[in-house]
Structure formats: structure tokens, C-alpha cells
Amino acid sequence: MNSLSLRFPATSANLGPGFDALGLAMSLFLKIEAREAPAFSIEASGRNSELIVSLERNLILDTYRELAPGGPPLHLEVRNEIPLGMGCGSSAAALLAGVLLANHFGQIGLSRREVLAEACAREGHPDNVAACFLGGLTVSSMLGREVATATFAGSPDWRLLLALPKASLATSEARALLPDSYSRPEAVSNLQATALMVAAFAQGRPELLAAGMRDRFHEPYRSAACPLLPRLRPLHDECEGIYSVTLSGAGPAVLLITSKDVPVELQVAAITRRSEGILAEVVETTILRPQ
After folding, report:
1. Which of 77-81, 102-106, 170-174, 263-267 has the lowest mean pLDDT?
2. Residues contacting residue 108 through CB under 8 Å, at least 6 positions apart
3. CA–CA dist 261, 43 (Å, integer)
């Protein structure tokens, strides 16, 4: 039987100043077992499974049908660990899944490079898609359909804590909060911080992470809609081993990079204490190494 197994990681884009340019792959996965079937159907388990089983307005199937209109119907078995509507790259994973399903079952003949370009074009920016496809911290740039990337591993001694609030936020709503232009000092500040962020991951230097995640492009404008961020930001100075605190993508989830040398229970307790009742969950994970 013609079948295909796929696995895509959650991603956290921007990482503070790297707006639409930086993405980080996390060890939380969307796993798909696909096979040809008499009609389209989905079995789903894990996070938000009640949304994933829908055959209508399903980004995976919509992408597949658009790219391979003559492709066979598919049965998908989906196991999802990626929070939806939290700024964790769920749409990037779904787009890549749809493109790769079309490439395999529709036999449309895309190269690996073309798969990445197609998914980035559909997303509109490359940060989440490139990290989802390549792993690690991915720096990406897109000019037309040309996507350039570089990946860095960071340190195996770093822990990721993903703080999820009770309410989600649509990316379109988060983008609507941003200004149309920025001043030269704001642009220079973000350029400096982004360079430090890449150096921190390239050299495994956690002391650069806090300065490397200072942002003036999007976090100041999204804080009101992402109330966990201002509540948790002081933890960098208050809690041992917390290197940085930033929005995950467009939010509202908050990503903390921490030291594995400090018990995770202490860090989670500090996050819970500062969240003031708007926290739903803290997920512990790691950086997915570059593929």
C-alpha cells in the first residue's frame, strides 16, 4: 500500500529581535501516518485533536488538494504535540505536511529545496517553516521564491520551557497590532540584538541570550494581547538559571531558555507564581538539533 510517515517539530519564531528571520525548532512534534484511501479521513490524537479531525478548512488537506488536485484521497493518522494558536509554528508544520503529501502521493516532483520554497511562499515568511524543515536555530531570508538558510545548534545544556496561557491569539490579530514603520534607533537596536542572538547559538554562550533577545519591533506592541510576557520577563533577574524570556512567535505563549543545572521544578514554580492566574500549562522541551 502506498504510504508515507512524516514528523514535524514545533517552532518558535522571532526570538525577540529576529522578526521574520529567526526560528527555533523544539522537540514537540506533529506526526502523520498517511496512506491512500477510498475517501479522505483523519484520525487524530493529542493536542487539539478535535480541530485536527475536521476535513473542512484543514490546512494540511487544503494544501495537498491545491498542489495535487489529481492526487488520491488519503487517510491520515495524526498525533499532535504542537499547541495551536499559541505562536508555536502549527501552520508551518501543516503547510510542510501538505506540500510533502502532494509531492509523494501527487507525484509533483518537487526537490527538497522546492518543498521548502513552496511552504515558505504559502506562509508568507520563512522563519517558522525553515526551522521546522531544518531544525536548530535557523536564520532564513526569502527573496521571491528563493530561500537562503543557516542553522545553529545552541547548547545541549539549555532547557526550553514553554509557558502557555489559557487564551489563544490568531497570528493575523497579532500582526495587526504592529506599526507600519520603525525609527533608525529601533532598527539598529534590533540588528545588534539579532547578531548577538546568532552568536549565542553559534558559540553556545548563554550569557549573550538576554541581550540578544531585546526587541523593539513587536514585543512592546503585543504585550497587552500577550499578558504572560510582562509578567514573566522579570524572571531573568529573579530566578536562577533563566537565561531569557521572550514571546514564542507572535504569542501569546512565552518561551524561556533556561539552564538544565537548575531543577526544573524551581523554574516552573517561579513561572506559576508570576503568571497571576492566566497560565494554563508549562511544557518542558529541548532544542531539536539541526537535521
Report:
1. 170-174
2. 67, 68, 102
3. 40
Three-class SS state of 113: helix
Verdict on whether the full-model pTM lies above 0.70: yes
CATH assignment at residue 145: 3.30.230.10
Q: Are residues 241 and 136 in the same domain?
A: no
Residue type, 188: V
Q: Which residues pair with 8 in a beta bridge?
A: 30
What pLDDT band is residue 1 in, cutting at 50, 70 and 90? low
Burial of 114 from C-beta contacts in 10 A (0-12 / 13-18 / 19+): middle
By three-state DSSP, how is residue 56 classified?
Answer: coil
| One domain for residues 243 and 125 | no
285: DSSP letter: E
The answer to whether 24 and 11 are in contact (CB under 8 A) is yes
Helix (H) or strand (E) holding 219: helix 219-222
Count of domains in the chain? 2
Nearest to 164 by CA among 252, 80, 43, 60: 252
